Amino acid sequence: MAKQAFDRTKDHLNVGTIGHVDHGKTTLTSAITKVLADQGLANYLDMDSIDNAPEEKSRGVTIAIAHVEYESAGRHYAHVDCPGHADYIKNMITGAAQMDGAVLVVSAPDGPMPQTREHILLARQVEVPKILVALNKCDMMDDEELLELVELEVRELLSRYGYPGDDTPIVRVSGLKAIEGDPDAVTGVLNLVEAMDDYIPVPERVTDRPFLMPIEDVFGIKGRGTVVTGRVERGTLNVGSAVEIIRWGDVRETVATGLEMFHKNLETTQAGDAVGILLRGVDREEVERGQVLVAPGTMSPYTKAEAEVYILSRDEGGRHTPFFSGYKPQFYIRTSDITGSCTLPDGVEMVMPGDNVKMEIELMSPGTTRRADALCYPRRRPHCGIRSHHQGCGVTHGQENSRRQADHNATMRRLPRA
Q1: Is 57 tagged catalytic?
Q2: Percentage of the chain modeled with pLDDT above 70
Q3: Catalytic residue flag (residue 397)
Q4: Alpha-carbon Rg of the chain, whole angstroms?
Q5: DSSP β-bridge partners for residue 256
Q6: In whole angstroms, what is the distance from residue 92 CA to residue 17 CA?
Q7: What backbone torsions phi and psi does residue 2 show, to the nearest 5 degrees?
Q8: In angstroms, rounded to a whole number, what is the distance separating the alpha carbons of residues 381 and 402?
Q9: Which of 11, 85, 217, 389 is catalytic?
Q10: Smallest Cα–Cα separation from 342: which of 316, 319, 370?
Q11: Cα 131 from chain centre
Q12: 7 part of the active site
């Protein structure tokens, strides 16, 4: 049976849930699909269907990011459920970098916790433009004054990291009760979706520049070929168009023979789409997460970059000690992670937790340089998450000197210090 075509009559947005581990992100994601499925706007996915990896089921925590689809009255949403556990922060960065807006899930009984703070900071660094708050597990809180106190604390935290805390919608919900069909909890989820419609603007998609999609995952389909998935960062791509895979050391030319979004066929994919692309003549072993799919001849590989970085303080779950030139953390750029060496500017002997610093980075891979040689650095700055046991985050800089860049730098300078 032929798959149906994807319907673009509604605006498409990429959103997701972020926040501390066990605050109910996956439960709330499931609740949204349940409530909207009752209105014919989604397919219900239970929590086991979202966290479907064996290790996720055995440990009861989200490890990899999960994608679900649903609609509101006027929009189509691709929803990324991000892991909250500190050990899987690179997956959270990958998910957050795809978002047009985020839902910060905070447990009402617990209030903001360490990963709540870190996720807000990382969302700011990868330029998630809007965050609204789902105050979850409100059925476990009877004291109105305590609920208001938690809301105040969340608003102060958002303001601290550059978001408009006083104007941010905070919606009281109970994901578990909504799944069980409690009328008040169902209303809470509907209010949350309405707040997403009202508060998260439809972004301008960059469709007039060459196609670029960071590869998030790779699948082999027996008898058909290899499918790569990711969020299209810019441009458009038609079925039958030539593309290049920028790999760890070389470039692989191929053709996109099929496009799908949430199991629906596309003739053309465009910036903002969370899409799967079938590649002609490419074996599963030839491509991997972190590589980039681009229009032919439009991407150049670099190993060096300049980055402006904020180093997480101890209170934010970051470093306890300073570091010096030659320090080698892991860098998360788009969907890739790779070791790099940091060189501090003249006159800066060391960097303390809580500092903002501009540094030069040379990317490498212990034991092999091919991976670093081919790491893509486009002619605009990519988002660069920097972490070694939650130690920092920042943005690499290209040649553009835009107003948006200046605004972002100003925000980074205002970030709190320890």
Answers
A1: no
A2: 76
A3: no
A4: 21
A5: 279
A6: 10
A7: -70, 145
A8: 11
A9: 85
A10: 319
A11: 13
A12: no
pLDDT band at 300 (very low <50, low <70, confident <90, very high): low
Of 168, 57, 187, the residue nearest 103 (C-alpha): 168
Cα(286)–Cα(284) distance, rounded to whole angstroms? 6
DSSP 400: -
Residues 6+ apart with CB under 8 A from 78: 12, 13, 14, 15, 67, 68, 69, 261, 262, 274
What is the per-residue pLDDT for 216?
Answer: 84
* Catalytic residue of the set 17, 26, 226, 396: 26
Q: State whether residue 140 is helix, strand or coil.
A: helix
Among candidate residues 11, 22, 197, 217, the one labeled active-site is 22
* DSSP-derived pairing of the beta strands 11-18 and 75-81: parallel
pLDDT digits (tens, 9 = 90+) for 78-113: 898 876 444 445 565 666 667 889 999 999 999 999
Strands 323-324 and 350-351: antiparallel
Which tokens in the block code for residue 189?
Answer: 């989820």
CA gap 264, 117 in Å, rounded: 37
Residue 26 falls in the annotated catalytic set: yes
| The one catalytic residue among 12, 20, 23, 25 | 25
pTM as predicted? 0.69
CB contact at 8 A, 213 and 230: yes
